[in-house]
Amino acid sequence: MGRFGEFLSRMKKFEPEGHVVSGRLAEFRLMKLTRAVAGDALVLEGIRIPDPEEGGRREIDMVVATKDEILFVEQKHWSGSFTITSEGRFFQKRNNGGTLMHKNIVAWTARKGDILCDLHENRCDKSAPPSRTVLVFSNKNLEWEPLPDEVPAEAYDELGFIDMIEKMNKSPPSEELRETLMGFGTWDTIHLNGGRTVHGDILNYPYEKRNCEIKNSGLFGLITGPKSLLSTGQVVTDQSGPLISVVGEDGSRIIPFAHISKIEFSNPKAAWG
User: Fold this and answer.
1) Going by C-beta distance under 8 Å and a sequence separation of 6 or more, which residues neighbour residue 249?
2) Does residue 187 lie within any of the structural domains?
3) How many domains does the chain have?
4) Whether residue 171 is found in the same domain as residue 216
5) pLDDT in tens, 122-144
6) What is d(CA 127, CA 117) in angstroms, rounded to the nearest whole number?
7) Phi (first) and psi of residue 27, to 5 degrees
């Protein structure tokens, strides 16, 4: 790619997708509110656990752990309305007239919680405290009824969930459980120029894996040569970049440093994570 092509590549903007932004903001808001009232409870976001049966990793939206119990929380920012089928699946009717059949999110969330508790018991030879499966429907534009009695989960809107957390016994979890939970990784996050974010696993990175911000040379680069300057000290003049397996995409792809404004790596995983 010539100088002008490299310059244009660094000027390209990737606008965030509206529904993704609103969902992510809702997750951030719920996490912030939860941590504000959680006291000594351990609150973690987006931890990913290995799936011994199906392979790969499974993400848990939020975990709230105390000495007495663990909450496995699944947050949905749906709009419209939903009903639950006889098979336990969630049938959503969107405000735009569209429909969507979701999986049995109660069973799916509970299964992820069971996997985590089994990993903890195998690691420490101690059982995890009792767990609860919790759904949070955070969009005020969603119409929904309380879950049927036979559904093994609790469901709240945002304020109801925060009120429930406030009333919990918020004693800290055992040191063994804290260590287990802190040993799971999250997603790597790439922030693109223009505001879009990409989540996934960075499979190959040309430098030491350290969080960094990236600044491009701008119009001056047409004279001196387009460059991407990493806050970790490297200078990139071509279309090289991290190789990432993106959530929701098949395979993997390289995202050039020229398109990136910031990279945030997952916390290091322990042996069991």
Assistant:
1) 200
2) no
3) 2
4) no
5) 999 999 999 999 999 999 999 99
6) 7
7) -65, -45
Residues 140 and 243 in one domain: no
Q: Is 116 within a domain?
A: yes
Structure tokens at 189: 């996050």
Please indicate, yes or no, if residue 252 is contained in any of the structural domains. Answer: yes
**Cut 0.70: pTM above it:** yes
Q: Which domain holds residue 252?
A: 3-16+194-264
The answer on 206 and 166 residing in a single domain is no
Same domain, 125 and 253: no
Question: Which residues, in sequence order, are bridge partners of residue 244?
Answer: 202, 253
CA separation for the pair 147, 160 (Å, rounded): 14
CATH of the domain at 38: 3.40.1350
pLDDT of 197-245, one tens digit each?
Answer: 999 999 999 999 999 999 998 777 777 789 999 999 999 999 999 999 9
User: For residue 70, how far is the Cα from the chain centroid?
Assistant: 19
User: Looking up tokens 């918020």, which residue turns up?
Assistant: 170
CA distances from 226 to 49, 219, 223, 229 (A): 41, 8, 8, 10
CA pseudo-torsion sign 27, 71, 272, 104:
negative
d(CA 42, CA 170): 9
Task: Quickly list DSSP for the chain.
Answer: --HHHHHHHHH---PPPHHHHHHHHHHHHHHHHHHHH-TTSEEEEEEEEE-TTT-SEEEEEEEEE-SS-EEEEEEE---EEEEE-TTS-EEEE-TTS-EEEE--HHHHHHHHHHHHHHHHHHHHSSPPPPEEEEEEE--TTEE-PPPPTTSSSEEEEHHHHHHHHHHS--PPPPHHHHHHHHTSB--EEEEETTS-EEEEEEEE-SS----EEEEE-GGGHHHH---EEETTS-EE-SS---EEEETTSSS-EE--GGGEEEEEPPPPP-TT-
